Amino acid sequence: MIQLFHVTKEYPGDGPALQDVTLELDKGEFVFLTGPSGAGKSTLLKLVFCDEAPTSGQLLLFGKNVAKIGARAVPYLRRNIGVVFQDFKLLPQRTVAENVALPLEVQAMPDKEIRRRVKQLLRSVGLEHRAEKFPPSLSGGEQQRVAVARALAPAPALLLADEPTGNLDPERTLEVMQLLADANARGTTVLVATHDRSLLERYKRRVVLLERGRLVSDGDSIRRAPGAGAGAGG
Ligand SMILES: Nc1ncnc2c1ncn2[C@@H]1O[C@H](COP(=O)(O)OP(=O)(O)OP(=O)(O)O)[C@@H](O)[C@H]1O
Predict the structure, then answer these.
(1) For the range 40-43, what are the long-range contacts, defined as Cβ-Cβ under 8 Å and sequence gap of 24 or more?
(2) Domain ABC transporter, which positions (predicted)?
(3) Binding pocket residue ranges, ligand 1, CB within 6 Å
(4) What is the atom index within ligand 1 of the atom nearest the CA of 40?
(5) Whose CA is nearest to atom 6 of ligand 1?
(6) 171: CA distance to ligand 1 center in Å?
């Protein structure tokens, strides 16, 4: 589903944000991407979403070499990808319901079906009562849940989520994680970037650890503690 071969990403005037990263995600996996602030987590998600291009190395998405598909094909590729960005990227002049409906309109789903699905999604993130509000009038946590609902709306083959529980209280965190787990159980491949060690401990999934742009471990659980503090085991 996602293959990176020796991928390096350098932003102009900066050291490498990602360095020689080789990583493969299979269809149906649920993977946490973790590491301290600045480790390169968001950069990796941006590469996979084709928002940025690798400086060197190869990236294959759904078996296609991203460097070779051309800019025009990118929107088609993205139709298979749901994404929750750190800054949500909700459209401020559209209501909550309209934001969630957008990816379904792109799929040309009938209006009646869209209304049904949007209602169901907003209910699942506890925001039915906010359907007609505009995103700027919502709290950060509410906007985050709208972003999750929008990302899951088209039942994407791949879901990329950058700190999707970053603004949520513990109860909402569990709800959002359950939505991601449910989507995964229905076949969506999920890649979640998070600092939150409690999530890694609670959900025993594959954990890919980045430090200063390098992939330093990849396994069933984290072998080294991200960020400050003593290492949690060897
Ligand atoms: N657009 C950009 N231009 C220049 N440098 C950037 C850009 N985006 C990220 N960087 C740099 O790349 C490195 C990796 O950043 P990235 O946002 O990928 O890390 P992260 O692990 O997601 O961090 P955080 O957990 O704080 O979101 C950092 O040193 C950052 O300053």
Answers:
(1) 40/9, 40/210, 40/212, 40/213, 41/162, 41/193, 41/210, 42/86, 42/162, 42/193, 43/9, 43/17, 43/18, 43/213
(2) 2-234
(3) 11, 14, 17, 35, 37-43, 195
(4) 18
(5) 11
(6) 29
Residue holding tokens 């209280």?
A: 169
Tens digit of each residue's pLDDT (9 = 90 or more) over 196-221: 888 999 988 999 999 999 999 998 76
Quote the CA–CA distance of 114 and 112 in Å, as a whole number: 5
Q: Given the cut 0.95, state whether the ipTM is greater than it.
A: yes
Q: Specify the residue with its C-alpha closest to ligand 1, atom 17.
A: 42
Tell me the mean pLDDT in the region 115-138: 95
Residue nearest to atom 29 of ligand 1 (CA): 38
pLDDT tens track for 3-57: 999 999 999 888 899 999 999 999 999 999 999 999 999 999 999 999 999 999 9
Measured by CA distance, the residue closest to atom 5 of ligand 1 is 11
pTM: 0.90
Interhelix angle 96-106/140-152, rounded to 10 degrees, is 20
